[in-house]
Design a protein that fits this description.
The protein has about 80 residues and is mostly helical. The chain has one domain. The longest helix is centred in the middle third of the chain and has 17 residues.
Length: about 80
C-alpha cells in the first residue's frame, strides 16, 4: 500500500500500483508444460524471433511451433 507521501514523491507509482493489481498470471497451468517450462519458453521465444526477423508467414511459424511443442512436450 502506498502512503500519500509515497504518491506525492513519485506520482507514477499510483499508475503502476493500479495496473499491477489487475495483472494476471501467465504461467502455464498444465502440469506437463510446468514441468518442462524451460523448453516451452525456449521454443516460444525462438518462434517469436522468427516472426520478427524473417519473412516467414505467421501461420507457418505458428504451425511449426505447434509441431515442435507437441513433439517436445506431449500433453497426453
Amino acid at each position: 500500500m502506498l502512503s500519500p507521501a509515497d504518491l506525492q514523491a513519485a506520482p507514477h507509482l499510483a499508475l503502476i500500483n493500479r495496473d499491477a493489481a489487475k495483472a494476471e498470471n501467465l504461467f502455464p497451468t498444465l502440469a506437463a508444460v510446468q514441468a518442462n517450462y524451460n523448453e516451452f519458453a525456449n521454443l516460444v521465444t525462438r518462434a517469436g524471433m522468427r516472426l520478427m526477423s524473417t519473412s516467414e508467414p505467421t501461420a507457418q511459424v505458428m504451425a511449426n511451433l505447434q509441431r515442435e511443442l507437441s513433439r517436445a512436450i506431449p500433453l497426453n
